[in-house]
Amino acid sequence: MKKYWFVLSTLLLLGGFLACQRANTSSGQSSEATEVYKQLAAKRVELPNGWSLTPPGRSLNLDDLPLTIALSRSRTLMAITNNGQSTQRITLINPATEQVLDTTTVAKAYVGLAFSDDEQRLYASGGNDNKILVYALDNRKLRALDPIPLGKPWPVKISPVGLCLDDARNRLYVVTKEDSALYVVDTKARRVLHRLSLGAAGYTCTLSPDKNELYASVWGGSRVAVINVNTGDAAPTQVATIPTNKNPNDLLLTRDGKYLFVANGNDNTVGLIDVANRRVVETLTASLFPDAPVGTTPNGLALSDDEQTLYIANADNNCLAVFDVTTKGQSRSTGYIPTGWYPTAVKVVGNRLFVTNGKGFTSKANPKGPNPNRSRVPQQIGPNPQANAGQPQYIAGLFKGTLSIIDVPDAGKPEPEVLAAYSRLVYANTPYTKRKETEAEGEAGNPIPRRVGAPSPIKYVFYIIKENRTYDQILGDMKEGNGDAALCLFPEKVTPNQHALAREFVLLDNFYVDAEVSADGHNWSSAAYANDYVEKNWVTSYGGRGGTYDYEGQKEIAHPRDGFLWDHCLRANIPFRTYGWFADDEKPNINAVAGRLCPTFKGYDLSYMDVKREEAWEADFDRLVATNNVPRLSTIRFGNDHTSGARLGAPTPDAAIADNDLAVGRFVEHLSKSAIWNQSVVFILEDDAQNGPDHVDAHRSIAFVAGGLVKRKFVDHTMYSTSGMLRTIELILGLKPMSQYDAAATPMWRCFTNKPNATPFVAREAGIDLNQKNVAVNRNSRRSAEFDFSRPDVINDLVFSEVVWQTVRGERSVMPAPRRGAFVKLAERGDDDDDDD
Asked: pTM to 2 decimals?
């Protein structure tokens, strides 16, 4: 049985509007609702991806990526674990006073957090240290005790995630993601008693009220495992599996143990399991519109004290979905509550909601990244930007989490009129609508169709992905755009072709990548989405805390529910070919590209020149042109702009960037001189912008468009994104959106004209020696010798970024101070912004 909210969007918008209008003739709650809407709308913050935030309530600052909230049995203590790239901490809070009681720094932590029943102990997952952290609670302070090891630390693959306690039996149950198991730990003897395989990565677990059964969400297995733990000294046994939708993560059991809610992070849904009958009896659609593509990411659950109201933390919709679950099997949606950016957990304490926002309340400029001082001091993003002036700015740790505290005075529920106002705000914050799935922004006669499936004069799309550069870092010296020359690390002498493309075709100075780093960047760039596994895991390895790079198709758990761009093309019978992307070692990383990759095009390898890759593409392309077999979509990877830092004998950063630039220039020149030029378009972007500084925003990056139907000498200040580029490609090819993000994104139609221009592009030869090698022996060369360049960003990029900067600018160079804030506060939008237009 599946429950949708039917026409709730229309009803909520109408209800919210009428509730606000009634405020003119009535008093009390309606007037309050109107004021709530106006106050929050006036403080709206627009994110670089085009979505907006209007978080209500009060807040506390946290470190980056808080993932879990644990409540003590008496609900007088709350603990939060921060699991981001930078400093990781466990924070102890008094929920009654909303004050921080204590904070302790940990080397590694990940998801798991639980109080003992007597509130004298706190247990936490120790991440890839493969141990359980144990704390005594002395006068509401955390005192570290000896941890309990599950095994040797990384590179041994265990990685504890969620956990739960049975104090009466001195048992701690821990699920793991690297060896996909349930560990049973004796908390008194402090040792592992049993290990039971789950068959795929686990996320969390919870016990039945009598503590005889355990339920584990099998994150990588689309199921909940039911395990008998009432086995005395014998090992527990799995007695049932309950199928779920993709990436089950958080679990919530009703007090009577009859029903279990499970959030499906890769499917926009929450399942309601009848525990006795071992099956899902109801599926709640948490997205704002029915049958929406992926992009909601439910990942946190909470019930009101009377268990009549369910709150779902929708990470990618930046809101809580609210359901009346009084009658199980007949649940109904009642609205939405706006939150901060990427809410990860929610708890109800009396008449208040506590919500962790994984990325806080705003994006931010990054003029000091990469960090020249190599400080690891955590940065607090708050109302006083001057307090942050001397702190590090690396994008992986730039967006600090927050804890929102929201009043819900009606027996743990928002007042209906206030909830209507909240819901209206959520819809206003969300650029995605159902209509946008089939009809996009544009103009009549433009080569970019407005409707999915409408014809385009562009037949061939060439999509080039590169590595890790901001706008200012490459084009900051172009006076035609909004650049900062002081932050330009690789100016026109090094990148003449990218400058020429921007000057001769379209200069895009307001383009933003949706990703933070390469791990999520290759997912955003190929699927317009990074699922909960990707978002919650890349920070571990990027913080130097172990883990593998599994984000270019290597692990199915990291795949979006409906696959990548190539999967969508395959289903739509659109011919495609990939050159080195999702094809490591000239072999397919995903099934879709098998038999559709160029075997002579070398994958990611910084020791191999991009100009040689371009030569391989030319030969393959010419063969395809000659046989009239050029596919509709070609995806090409030129990744040497990543650079090898200061590694002795490797190309200097300037040489690596110039090599990459020349490959791009020669590619466009060769295509422009071919017979299909007027039917072709080249899109070029970076997977992410993590390596460089930018005075506008840490996500702002370079992007280029070239082709016979692309405008010439045009400057476009429109705000575009990774998802917007993908949306443009989809409209050309007749593909439906892959996620809510590309459905909502602005297509790049302004870059195009219906008047073809056959003038070929002429590549510029490099202004520096491409064979220039690093020869200096210094601190940066020694550090570079220790880096693993086998995959993008396996290394600690905070340190690597510093190496690149200092190799180019000098070992003692210091980045310029911040210039301006980066977030955009918008005035209240009109009512038509809430419509499905």
From this structure: 0.90
Does position 416 have pLDDT exceeding 80, yes or no?
Answer: yes
- Assigned domain for 443 exists: no
Task: Tokens for 595, please give them.
Answer: 């038999």
Pairing of strands 343-349, 352-357: antiparallel
Report d(CA 298, CA 316) in Å as an integer: 8
Print the domain residue range for 557.
Answer: 457-777
Number of structural domains in the chain = 1
**Sign of the Cα pseudo-torsion (505, 507, 513, 517, in order):** positive
Q: In 10 A of CB 393, how many CB atoms?
A: 22
φ, ψ dihedrals at 233, nearest 5°:
-85, -5
Higher pLDDT pick, 96 / 831: 96
* Separation in Å, CA 767 to CA 570, 590, 707: 41, 38, 25
Of 441, 448, 522, the C-alpha closest to 728 is 448
Of 506, 509, 525, the C-alpha closest to 706 is 506
822, 365 Cβ separation under 8 angstroms: yes
> Which residue in the block uniquely carries the two structure tokens 């002498």?
493
- Rounded Cα–Cα distance for residues 720 and 30 (Å): 38
Give the domain CATH number at 469. Answer: 3.40.720.10
- The number of residues in the chain equals 837
Residues paired with residue 122 on neighbouring β-strands, in sequence order: 115, 135
Per-residue pLDDT at 813: 79
Residue 119 lies in a domain: no
Answer yes or no: are the C-beta atoms of 269 and 283 closer than 8 Å: yes
Residue 793: the pLDDT is 60
Sign of the Cα torsion 775, 779, 785, 789 reads: negative
Nearest CA to 358 among 403, 393, 395? 403
Task: Supply the Cα-derived Rg of the chain in whole angstroms.
Answer: 26
CA–CA separation, 103 and 111 (whole Å): 16
Q: Tens of pLDDT along 249-263?
A: 999 999 999 999 999
Least confident of 93-97, 440-444, 640-644: 640-644
Residue type, 488: C
Is there a contact between 340 and 359 (Cβ–Cβ < 8 Å)? yes
In the β-sheet with 66-71, what is the strand arrangement from edge to edge? Answer: 66-71, 78-82, 88-94, 99-106
The residue behind tokens 């020694």 is: 782
Please indicate, yes or no, if residue 25 is contained in any of the structural domains: no
Pairing state of beta strands 113-115 and 131-138? unpaired
**Integer angstrom CA distances of residue 495 from 305, 309, 501, 604:** 61, 57, 10, 21
**Mean pLDDT value across residues 372-391:** 32
> Does residue 750 sit within a domain?
yes
- Close Cβ partners of 39 (under 8 Å, ≥ 6 residues apart): none
